[in-house]
Structure to design on (665 residues):
């Protein structure tokens, strides 16, 4: 990490640096101390999870709800961490300038505390953000796209990253790392080889976007929409807009603001800019009016600079459409191009348009853009399909609000076959939460859904809206059931109306824990179960398998890991949709076999680990000996480890496994 030595980090976070018990820069810090190699070593990473700490990493000791990072400082230093950022020094720590000269600092309880580097600060969380802002200055050559909005941030982020990855080495936010802790950790993952980064920026209160913007300093920002989210703190839609537009103050001068002009609030911002600030002033954050004068704007939507037409919904399989780029700043001529997005919902067409603008802004042509859009896939919890033997479970359990719940109902209404929705409470809707739940239920009732299951205390209002006989037609009266708890739903799972062959969408606010319901439904839908009793794929089993190949038999683990890293395979996606650089560690390689939903070969073709396992192995030239090994008698021990008597049983099982692979419990 450029310019990230311990003294530089300490200065960036306004902290005091201690090396082996001596304060850096104090009278007791002698000439010999200044020659310590740690002072000139650049950090290779910054983490808050001690399990992720590696040699030459900096560990930020954060006190969380469940555990205190300060309790793990000694363990990370023992693993080779460069130093720790902390609010308190370890118990027994002392500055040697005040110590008795007769104390033996090589032995005893004090010695364990002295040896190591600590940067003492008032607040580790503030230091984490200050350090992220500093590091952003060191990676100024990396172009960052910030993703902001009430709904659709994650799917837009995935699409933008997929498009940019067609032409550039691109990093993106992983999982839900979009807040004041996740954003700095995302920035720290940007390395010298990256050319682009896509950073999701989520907030729930005023001032948060200002702090995120100060760290990210985006070159461009995409705003997806302004919806009724976090109204308990933001009040109304004008409040949401005001909070989101805090980011405008941090877009680089001459940078780009991309607006969805199908959204009323965002359209008002676009028109305000295009009218040269003569139209009605929208509800902007302090300073955003002036910032808007120093940046460019682009629009997408029905009448945007990038628009869509001929949308053909394929339900849970995505949509086909055409997008048109108007002649202007983004294109030298009008262009209309066919495209396909595999992420479910026609609203993903809108997100694809945002990704199109990102690609054009990065200098890509429309054909590379369409390739990137088609390559994107849904992530866990975000309308992610789980194919089982009995039915299809669509996992949309990560979060929910009225707007996204209605969009999910529209998606299901367009799908084929018998359709079921399992819906739960939506949080942080303020004083109108009961009314908003009621209206959402009434909206769902007007869609072509065969069965809707409502779960949760607030969901009772959705159920009431759905079953209001004054508002819905008689044929829908018996298409809804209600349970107060998940446990009550589980007890009635076999009798509530769910049938084999159903497509089932599960959605609620994250706090409802509906990922558990997804797991239950996937379990119920799975007929074939291999390797019972094995909860994990053991790393040693993978290494044993590799060690039997002609290529790897005389090589160390590190050598094998390096070869995998340099293989022609592009990467893997784990069960959370996280892309892992293929073989970054041997553990990552092992992970592929038991948590992967999808693997990506050298041509970026995505293949399920079940029936396509054979093709995957063959497609990886660096691992061709692995494929050869699977066909030898030496592999019998390997097959037996996973419940197969002989290799024929192993190969016969491949086409019947679910998409998570044969090593999944």
């Amino acid at each position: 990490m450029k310019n990230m030595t311990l003294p530089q980090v300490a200065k960036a976070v306004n902290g005091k640096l201690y090396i082996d018990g001596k304060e850096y820069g104090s009278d007791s810090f002698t000439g010999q101390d200044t020659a310590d190699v740690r002072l000139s070593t650049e950090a290779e990473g910054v983490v808050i999870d001690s399990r992720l700490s590696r040699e030459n990493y900096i560990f930020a000791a954060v006190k969380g709800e469940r555990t205190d990072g300060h309790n793990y400082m000694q363990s990370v230093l023992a693993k080779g961490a460069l130093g720790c950022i902390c609010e308190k020094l370890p118990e027994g720590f002392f500055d040697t300038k005040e110590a008795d000269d007769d104390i033996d600092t090589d032995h005893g309880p004090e010695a364990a505390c002295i040896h190591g580097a600590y940067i003492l600060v008032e607040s580790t969380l503030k230091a984490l953000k200050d350090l992220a802002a500093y590091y952003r200055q060191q990676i100024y050559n990396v172009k960052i796209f910030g993703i902001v909005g009430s709904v659709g941030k994650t799917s837009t982020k995935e699409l933008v990253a997929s498009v940019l990855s067609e032409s550039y080495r691109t990093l993106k936010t992983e999982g839900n790392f979009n807040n004041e802790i996740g954003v700095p950790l995302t920035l720290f993952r940007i390395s010298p080889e990256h050319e682009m980064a896509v950073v999701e920026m989520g907030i729930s209160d005023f001032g948060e976007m200002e702090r995120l913007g100060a760290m990210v300093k985006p070159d461009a920002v995409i705003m997806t929409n302004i919806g009724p989210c976090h109204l308990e703190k933001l009040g109304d839609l004008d409040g949401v807009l005001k909070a989101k537009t805090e980011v405008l103050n941090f877009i680089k001068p001459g940078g780009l603001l991309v607006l969805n002009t199908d959204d009323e609030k965002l359209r008002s911002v676009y028109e305000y800019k295009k009218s040269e600030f003569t139209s009605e002033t929208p509800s902007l954050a302090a300073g955003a009016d002036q910032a808007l004068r120093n940046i460019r704007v682009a629009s997408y939507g029905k009448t945007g600079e990038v628009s869509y037409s001929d949308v053909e919904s394929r339900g849970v399989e995505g949509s086909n459409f055409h997008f048109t780029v108007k002649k202007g700043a983004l294109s030298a001529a009008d262009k209309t191009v066919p495209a396909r997005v595999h992420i479910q919902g026609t609203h993903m067409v809108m997100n694809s348009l945002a990704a199109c603008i990102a690609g054009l802004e990065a200098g890509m042509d429309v054909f590379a853009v369409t390739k990137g859009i088609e390559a994107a896939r849904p992530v866990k919890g975000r309308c992610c399909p789980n194919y089982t033997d009995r039915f299809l479970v669509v996992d949309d359990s990560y979060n929910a609000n009225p707007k996204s719940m209605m969009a999910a109902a529209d998606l299901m209404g367009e799908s084929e076959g018998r359709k079921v929705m399992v819906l739960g409470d939506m949080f942080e809707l303020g004083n109108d939460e009961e009314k908003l739940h009621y209206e959402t239920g009434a909206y769902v009732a007007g869609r072509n859904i065969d069965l809707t299951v409502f779960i949760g205390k607030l969901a009772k209002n959705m159920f009431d809206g759905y079953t209001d006989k004054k508002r819905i037609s008689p044929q829908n009266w018996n298409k809804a059931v209600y349970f107060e708890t998940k446990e009550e739903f589980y007890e009635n799972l076999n009798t509530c109306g769910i049938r084999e062959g159903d497509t089932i969408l599960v959605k609620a606010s994250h706090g409802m824990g509906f990922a558990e319901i997804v797991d239950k439904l996937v379990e119920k839908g799975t007929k074939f179960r291999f390797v019972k009793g094995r909860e994990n794929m053991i790393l040693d089993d993978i290494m044993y398998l590799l060690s039997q190949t002609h290529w790897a038999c005389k090589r160390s683990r590190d050598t094998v890991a390096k070869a995998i890293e340099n293989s022609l395979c592009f990467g893997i996606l784990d069960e959370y949709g996280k892309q892992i650089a293929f073989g970054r560690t041997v553990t990552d390689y092992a992970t592929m076999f038991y948590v992967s939903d999808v693997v990506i070969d050298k041509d970026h073709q995505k293949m399920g680990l079940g029936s396509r396992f054979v093709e995957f192995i063959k497609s990886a030239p660096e691992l061709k000996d692995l494929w050869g090994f699977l066909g030898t008698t030496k592999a019998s021990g390997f097959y037996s480890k996973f419940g197969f008597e002989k290799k024929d049983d192993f190969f016969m099982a491949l086409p019947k496994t679910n998409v998570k692979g044969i090593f999944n419990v």
In short: The chain has 26 helices and 25 strands. The first helix runs from residue 6 to 12. The chain has four domains: 6-126, 139-375, 384-525, 539-656. Confidence is low (pLDDT under 50) at residues 95-113, 528-555, 560-639, 650-665.
